[in-house]
Each structure stands twice: as C-alpha cells, then as structure tokens.
Design brief:
The complex is a heterodimer of chains A (about 130) and B (about 160). A 6-stranded antiparallel beta sheet of chain A has the order 1-2-6-7-8-5, covered by helices on one side. In chain A, strands 3-4 form a two-stranded antiparallel sheet. Chain A has 3 helices and 8 strands. Chain A has one domain: Roll (Thiol Ester Dehydrase, Chain A). With about 130 residues, chain A is α+β, with helices and mostly antiparallel strands. In chain A, a hairpin with a 4-residue loop joins strand 1 and strand 2. Chain A is globular, with a radius of gyration of 14 Å. Chain B is of the alpha+beta class and about 160 residues long. Chain B has a single domain, classed as Hotdog Thioesterase (Thiol Ester Dehydrase, Chain A). Chain B is about 20% helix and about 35% strand. Chain B is built from 3 helices and 9 strands, in the order E-H-E-E-E-E-H-E-E-E-E-H. A 7-stranded antiparallel beta sheet of chain B has the order 1-2-3-7-8-9-6. In chain B, strands 4-5 form a two-stranded antiparallel ribbon. In chain B, strand 7 and strand 8 form a beta hairpin. Chain B starts with 13 loop residues before the first strand and ends with a helix. The chains are: A alpha+beta (about 130), B alpha+beta (about 160). At the A-B interface, helix 2, strand 3, helix 3 and strand 5 of A face helix 1, strand 4, helix 2 and strand 6 of B.
C-alpha cells in the first residue's frame, strides 16, 4: 500500500500517509499551512478534504480487490460535517458493495475524535 | 418592472484578476487562477502539473483535484451572487466523472449559482480542457450562506479593489 501511495504523484503532493488501524489500515493527512482554504477560521480547504476522502476510497478499494491498476471514478459525493481545523485528519474506507463492475465505497474522515467526523464521502468506481 | 439586483462584488465582474484567490493558500499552492466572474458565476483555470496526477499509468489528473478546482470556483460563484458579503461553507458536493481529462492539458471550470435562498446556495458546475461543450466532469453542490461569524474572505479583497 505504501508503494502504491508513493507511485501516485498527487498523494505525495498532499502528503497523505498510511497508518495501521483495527481493521487493516487508515489514511492520514498531516496538517500543513498549504492545505488551508479559509484563513479566517482557519480551516482546511474543502477540496482537499474531498480529494483526501476520494484517495482513501481508492486505496481501500485497491486493498480489498488486489487489482493492479487505479480504478476509474464514476462519481464522488462529499458531505462536509464540521469545520476541519489546522490539525491532522484521518480517514478510513469501507467497501459498501463490491459488484461485478461497480464498487460503492464509503469514507469517513475525522480529526481528534472519530465520533465527530468532519467529512463523509461516497464514491462509485468502475474497475 | 423588476428591480435590478445589486451584487456586493459587481465592481469585480468581467475578466478576473487572476490573483483573486490570493487569500486562499491551498488554491495558490495548486496554482488555481481566476479567469472571469459575473453575476452568480465564476470561471477558473488549473494549469497542468505532473504533481497532480492520480493515475500514473494514464497521466490523468486525480479526480479530487477537480473537486478542489470546482469547490473554489463554486465558492466564488456564490460570493458573486450575494447582495451582501457573508461567510459561506460547502454543505455537499457531488462530482460525476464523465470521462478522463486529457493528460497535459490545463483544466477549466465554470460554476453557476442558479438559486440563492436566505440560507442555502445551489450551484452547478462543469469542467473541460478543450471545449466547454465537451466537459469531462459535472458537479452539483450546495453551500450554507452566513455559515459562521468569521466573515467573508472576499471582504478584504473587495475593500482593496474599491480603493484602486
């Protein structure tokens, strides 16, 4: 999984990492000032959270299926639940349904408390 | 006779100062530029960079990057629909990836706030690299209007623009 992450230029650009979790792994987005979208709050850019959620979904799907290419996204929906402050963000993916051609992947992202998610994502991927 | 709507940012409408995103660190980090603004809409551009690739085998920009470009343009489109500037926040956003964006090409998006209520702004957007009529992604999003007490980041920009 770490090799795959290193092979995706945008994952390196965002600085996304992998950390062990109870079931498999989860992703971490270490905070950097370049990720700020709103300096007045301050808050991480909504696009960054959406991209981080989509990346987490993709990695979760690759891990689950063992395929050796990047699945094509069909659609991705992001719900913004709370302001994401200038702190590290974590996310994990759950493969909700793995069909013959389409996978439905749910993602939840949080900062300090997993019970208080900042972002939720739902992606459909073609593989 | 319908009364003409006034817009808080109307002095900025037209070909955009591309540094209108200068108050957004991540937009600058990605290299997003504003192209044009008008009543309730904004056009933005993201120059192609290898660092933004999500599928190394195909050289295609990562989908989430397009989310950021569209989120940024949509926030500006909402600001361009307001009579009085206030803080806005994305509630949700759905992107449909119609096809892969062509590797090596600059990406464009146009976002339009097509309905504004007291609390919610409804936005749609599309993104293309050659022709606005042949988009590679479309998007539907909602924003909360008057989202917090922090004020609008555009206020400072607008005040600066007014002085010039």
């Amino acid at each position: 999984m770490k090799e795959l992450l290193a092979a995706i230029p945008y994952a390196r650009f965002l600085g996304v990492g992998i950390e062990p979790a109870e079931a498999g792994f989860q992703c971490i987005l270490p905070f950097r000032p370049e990720l700020i979208g709103n300096t007045m709050l301050p808050a991480i850019h909504g696009g960054v959270l959406g991209a981080f959620a989509e990346l987490t979904a993709l990695l979760g799907l690759i891990d689950e299926t063992g395929i050796d290419r990047v699945p094509k996204p069909v659609s991705f929906t992001v719900d913004y639940l709370r302001t994401a402050g200038p702190r590290d963000t974590h996310a994990r993916a759950e493969i909700f349904k793995l069909g013959r051609r389409i996978a439905n992947v749910h993602v939840v992202g949080w900062q300090d408390d997993p019970q208080k998610p900042v972002v939720a994502g739902n992606g459909k991927f073609l593989f | 006779m319908a009364t003409q709507k006034r817009y808080a940012l109307d002095s900025l409408f037209g070909p955009a100062d591309e540094n209108i995103v200068s108050h957004t660190p991540h937009a600058q980090y990605l290299g997003i530029k504003a192209v044009e603004t008008g009543p309730g809409f904004a056009v933005m551009k993201l120059p192609y960079r290898h660092e933004l690739v999500g599928d190394p085998a195909r050289g295609v920009v990562f989908g989430g990057v397009i989310t950021t470009l569209i989120d940024q343009a949509s926030g500006l489109a909402v600001a361009c629909s307001l009579e009085e500037l206030t803080a806005i926040a994305t509630i949700d956003l759905r992107i449909d990836y119609l096809r892969a964006a062509e590797p090596g090409r600059d990406l464009y998006t146009r976002s339009e706030c097509y309905k504004l209520t007291r609390n919610i702004a409804f936005v749609r957007a599309s993104a293309w690299e050659h022709d606005i009529g042949d988009p590679f992604a479309t998007c539907q999003a909602t924003f909360m209007v008057g989202a917090n007490n922090a004020g609008s980041p555009f206020s400072a920009r607008f005040a600066k623009g007014a002085k010039q």
